[in-house]
Structures are given as structure tokens and as C-alpha cells.
Predict the 3D structure of the following.
Amino acid sequence: MQQRPAAATRQSTIERKDLHRLFEVLRARGYTVMGPVARDGAIVWDELSTPDELPAGWTDEQEAGRYRLVRSDGPALFDWTVGPASPKASLHPAAVTLLNARREGPALRLLECVPQPTRLAFFGLRACELAAIAVQDRVLLGGTPTDPVYRARREGALLIAVQCGRAGRTCFCASMGTGPEVRSGHDLVLTELLEDGRHLFVAEAASERGGEILAELPATDTTAAESGAVQAAVARATAGMGRTLETEGLPALLARNPEHPHWDVTAARCLACGNCTSVCPTCFCVTTEDFTDLAAGLSRRVRRWDSCFSVDFTYIHGGNVRSSSRSRYRQWLTHKLGSWHEQFGSSGCVGCGRCITWCPAGIDITEEARALRQDQRGKEGSRGNA
Amino acid sequence: MAAPRKPRLAVIKFASCDGCQLSILDCEDELLAVAGAVEIANFPEASRAVLRGPYDLTLVEGSITTPHDAERIHAVRRDSKVLVSIGACATAGGIQALRNFAEVGSWVPLVYPTPDWIQTLKTSTPISHHVKVDYELQGCPVNKHQLLEVVLAFISGRRPFLPSHAVCMDCKRRGVVCLTVARGEACLGPVTRTGCGALCPSYGRGCFGCFGPLRGSANTGSLSAVLQGHGHSHEELMRLFRTFTCGAEAFRKASELHEHDASESHERP
């Protein structure tokens, strides 16, 4: 088959051995490439210099409160579902210095830290992660004022998705309407195929930039068989969802049940450790801390990820508003699945399943919503019979 | 016009290893600035010149383990405008609170040739069990940045900023993969207050709980069930809860439950 530059809007096929060209093209355009690596027993995001650093031959097993990275057969680079980290750590960093202040005689001089624009290319985003970035766009850039830290990182970001060919036991993006098929928000989408001893990526551009990059790669026309295999991969992932969440009428259901007895059941298990909010790719809450450097005469204000699960999150004069873990868990779940709609125009949940896998106690957001709904149905049923 | 009087600092030791006092000396770069901002009136680990009280800020290290110290802490309190207890010993009784789980009288003859000369209490207790404490700084040892924060906040007349979230959030902020979820390892991070920046997990070792239980919400029962689910025995979990902060109520209760269940499982054939 003769090689030709790929057209911007059609599918084209890239050989695994030519993937390094993509990295070279990205670097030539000034991008730092962020992608998945296998490290410390999980798939995490890191800076990549070559595709050889991608997690070849690794897959994962996930359940509520349990994750194992395991060897898989074959050379697949993307035979895993999302790990604990997400692009949130790069776009909405865990810690960032907001300002420095120096005492100069009787005056205090503020030295503002202007966020520096970055050019990050995220390689290997899943559909749920694109959806999460879209949620954070609405939260952090959708209103006034916008968040300058996020803006500086987000505006220069290039989003390259890789579609899932399998789903994990805690995945439920199909329920949330966010995946597994990559539909929007990306510049370029790839699907990994291992067919007849060949290792291919079927690529399709979704933006002008994506098209320009794809045009620089050695590619062939995608065959009908390859296109069919892409459809089959997505269908396989859709069929393999380990969890489901019924979203119909959920915000109203949650709003009706602030005193539901099931909150106590969950509170007995909840560690209030904040793992769920930390791994959630849409949770955005931050706190600020001030540090004094006596020797240098400097004060520094740092913004850090916070969590509605820490006791002092709701501290106001006189005490903490949400002193029990029951009230904190209820706040998180009802915001994520309920009042988020009213506030930001969508659910705050993208169905990635991270909060289920990485909760040490294995609290399952889909089971929690189901328990509240089941009991509600029971109640309505008995009311109907009365 | 005379310069304003510098606040007088005292560092007083009770039953402890001196490690927290060394954390003060470990402040290196900022130590001279601190020494310039306060008058170090009583700090034997740093200076032989000991000035009498009263003191504006007293940092108290160590727990109360002898009748003499149980008296002395009241004198320290009377001499101190602001009293901050520092470290696991002063805030929870320290590793020496292991005596609280046993009969001290049976150990003394094993250690001392003349047991009659030893006057000791049956328990090791935190400073707050004896006198009013203005702030508590947890940790074994305390974190030097938190220690500086307390001193600097005092100098500048503001409240110290001491975060209260779980160690887990530090792991996640640093990108440390969860040892319990990904490897099934025993870790006290979910019930332990931050302060160390997730030091042990970042080196692949589960949290020892040096900074003590989360204030108000340490759900040790749930964590115990989780860790048992990963195959950890009652005996192992009893020891996990019973180290440097074994005297803190939430960890004491958890270790006693595991001790009870461990002995029951031994009794079974």
C-alpha cells in the first residue's frame, strides 16, 4: 500500500513502529508530551519522551477498593483502563504558588506569580477524561472570573485521545453518556488495533491542529476492515462496562432524600480520607495556605487541592458546618450527581470509576445512588398501595 | 524609644527522646532568624544559659510518666503565657504509653537493679491530661515546618495554620500510588492526620500513624475491616495501631479491639 499524507477529516492508519514520529512532530511544535506509564503498581500520567515508555504489555484489574497492575499477553500499549491519576494534575495542579509578599520598610510589596502558558500534549486520553476536561472547562473557565492558572495550562493543551477497547470492572461511562466512544473535545483520536500480527493505530483528526499533525505522519488509508475493527473495539468496551448508574431523575431524587437512612450506612464505612475527591477528575476545590519565611522576609501564598471530606473544609467563625462524615459524604454525592446540574449545566460525574476503585473502603457511587433509589421506590410503592 | 521586648521562648522536656527539640535545631536556615525574633530563655538542648520564667511561649516536649513530672508540669503552665505541646509524647503519651496496656510493676525489676528507687506512674499521659494546652503539634517527630509555623504565627500574632486532613490527600497531591488499594499493604493514612507530607508512603511503606488520629473522624473500625479484607491479621493490626501514638484514644481503642479478637482466635482450636 502506498504511503501518503493523511487527510484531515478521514481515518488513516499508522503503524506502531511509526508512532515515534508523532512524538517528534509534537516536540517540533513545542509540546511537552504527557502520557501513561506503568509506575509503582499503577498506570499514571507522566512526561514522555518516546512511545517506548508507554505501558506495553500491561493491563489492570479493578474492583471497589482494589487495583492490580498485571502483565498481559502481547505488545498492546493501551490494554488498560484509567489509573488513579488524571490530566487534572497537569491542568489544575495540586499545588501552585499564587503570590509572594515581601516587607519593604513599612510597606508590604505583593509579587504576583503570573501563570506561565504551557504547551502540553496529552497522549492517551480516554473518552471519560475528555468529558472531565469539558466539565472543568465549564467550572473554571465558564463563569466570571475565570481561573488564570487553569487557563494558562488549558489554552495551550493538545488533546490526543485513544479509544478504549475494553472496559474495567468499575467503569460506567456508558451510563453517563461520556464514552467509551470518543466524540468531542479532542484534537486527534487513535484506536489501537492488533490484527493478523500487525500493530496499528487508526487515527482521525477532529480539529485543524489535529489535522496538521496527522498530515505529518506516515499513514495509509484506513481499510474497511480496519474501520470495522475500530467499531468492534468500541462496542466491546461498551458491552464490558463493570458498573451502571441510572441517571434518570437523579438530581431530584437526591434533593428529596437528605435524611435518608442509607447515609448512615455509608457514613459507617466512609473514612473521610478524601481519596475520592482527589482522584475525581472533575473535583476542583482548593484551599490557600500562607507560609512565612522569616529569614528572607517573604510570605508565600500557595493554593492546594482541598476536599469536602476534610474536617476544616467548612470551618467558619465558631466551628465546622459539616462535622460528621455522614454530612460530608452526602454533600459530595449530592453535589456530584445532583446540584452540579443546576450549578454547571451537567453532571459532575463522568463515569470513570476512579472514586470506586481508589476508595480504600470500596464505597461505590453507583451502589450508593442505587440504594437511595431502591428504598425510594419501595416507599413510593407502599404509598401507592395505601 | 526602646525596642519592643522580644517574646521569651522556653523549650521544656518531659519523658521523651529529645527528637522534637532537635527538630527545632534542625530548622537550620531559619534558626538564626527565629533566634533573632525571640529571646531563647530556657532551652537546655540549645544553650546552657537558663533564665527563669515567666515565658511568653513554651514548647513542651514529652509525656507525664512520674509523680515528680505530674507536679512539674503545673509549674511550667503557671510560668507560660502560651503553652504548645509538641510531638507524639506530649500530645498522646508517646511510645512509652505502651506501659498503659501492661503492668508497669512487673517490668521495673527486669530493668533496674534497685527497683525500690524507681518512682513511676502506671501510665504515660499527654500534657493535655494535666494542664490546659493552647495548641497541640502532633508528629513523631514534629514536622519542622509546622514547628516554625507555630513559632512564626506566635511572633506575628496570628493563629498557626495546621491542616487537619488525612495523610491520603498528601499521597494524592504528590502522585503516590495508594499502597493499600494497589498492593493490599497495611497503612494508617486514611485515619491519620497530615503533617509529614506522606513521608513513609512516598518510600513505599504504609503510614505508621505518627501524627495521630484524624480529629473527630478517624474511622478506625472501617479501616480495620478494610485491612482485614486485604489479609492482615488481628495481631498485625493490633501492632499497627499500637506504636508512637498508641495512647491517642481512637488508636488505643482500635488496638484493644484487635488484641481482644487476636486472643479469641488463638483460643480457638
